[in-house]
Amino acid sequence: MDEPYTVSDAIPACLKGRPSEFLSSRPHLQRLMAAAMVFRARQGAAAAQTLLLRRAPSDSYPLRWEVPGGSTSDRKDGSVLDGVRRELREETGLGARRMLYTVGMLEEAPPMPTPTDLGAEEEEARNDEGDDARTVSFWEFDQRHGMVRWGKVTVVVDVDEDLGDGSVVRLDEREHDRWAWATRAEVEAGRWADGEEIRFVTEGSWRSILEGFRLYAEKADKEREMDGPRLMAKFGGKANKGL
Q1: pLDDT digits over 42-100, tens only?
Q2: Where are the annotated segments for Disordered (predicted)?
């Protein structure tokens, strides 16, 4: 059983409730996904990397890359954050230690697509994932319910494991066949350093990952700005060149 995780003040209260409660206050959504972004620092925020997973050849969106995540339900998850933790554990084997801040939450209803046929409907569902990297959502065609609007909440998570160069990620091979650490430059370019293409699940997913990098760098900059005053206070207002 997973150890309890802690939650930062930056996490909205709505994510501490059940998925059904989140959806009931957002009637423009029918279903909810929860995803986790995990970063590891490599000589500063500019070289930070995030964990990406490649979907299995036999699954939907085959061989496309994404962050760990999946659907939530009251049956499995006591809260939306519990869904983030569960999906991270199931898809990577990593344990969530602290929920840090959100990257994407849908708060407004995007327009319903108006396809001319089923093929166009399915294609639009794949490509439409919101106009704002902070408000990621997507349409999906369901045989029973027609077009269904999903909301997707992404949370930056600190994990229990040491994220050094050792192999700590354990995949569920039914869902993913590869994992890798990606820099912001690689995500922006859509290519790994060796030139191999990185094809993301959707453009909206790609934008959301870039937004996660932006927020990570922004928070790292703020921490650096605070380090100076902290050290000055610690050492009586005198600079210490030995630090």
Answers
A1: 665 568 999 999 999 999 899 999 999 999 999 999 999 999 999 999 999 999 999 99
A2: 107-131
* pLDDT tens digits for range 133-167: 333 555 565 656 677 788 889 999 999 998 876 76
pTM above threshold 0.70: yes
One-letter-per-residue 3-state SS of 36-81? EECEECCCCHHHCEEEEEEECCCCCCCCCEECCEEECCCCCCCCHH
Mean pLDDT of the chain: 80
Q: Which domains does the chain have, with CATH numbers?
A: 6-233 (3.90.79.10)
User: Residue 70 in contact with residue 33, Cβ under 8 Å?
Assistant: yes
**Among positive and negative, which fits the CA dihedral 84, 86, 88, 90?**
negative
For 165, other C-beta atoms within 10 Å of its C-beta total: 8
Q: Please name the residues in contact with 206: beta carbons below 8 A apart, sequence gap of 6 or more.
A: 187, 190, 200
Task: Please name the residues in contact with 139: beta carbons below 8 A apart, sequence gap of 6 or more.
Answer: 112, 113, 124, 125, 128, 147, 148, 149, 150
Q: Tens of pLDDT along 190-232? A: 999 999 999 999 888 888 899 999 999 998 888 777 765 654 4
CA atoms within 13 A on the CB side of 239: 2
